[in-house]
Amino acid sequence: METIKEKVKVTRNFRVTIPSKIRNKIGLKEGDLVEVVLNGEEIIIRKSPERPRIKLGRKLTLRDIELVIKRGMRVGEEGEKKKFKRLLKEALEGCDITVEEWVRAVREARMEH
What we know:
Shape: elongated
Largest sheet: 2 strands, antiparallel
Strand order of the largest sheet: 1-2
């Protein structure tokens, strides 16, 4: 395993820029998650495993969320996780949102009503 070492400056709000040489080496892209670990006096920043994404291609509306919930309720007592996931993907087809973002949007929508 090759070691690459570069110095970077901590800017306002304690931000650092990961050098392009390192970003390119591990395939880090804008929007990817990283883990920050404190190990004694050492700070380790590493690429986090990829999150599952659902392609939406447009903003998720409250109507979209309600439609997915209604379709999910049809699964009901069966408890068929596969069927619900398929229905969710169908309802959100063509959009770009993670499952976590969808869940957060549902929670926010519930709090508003």
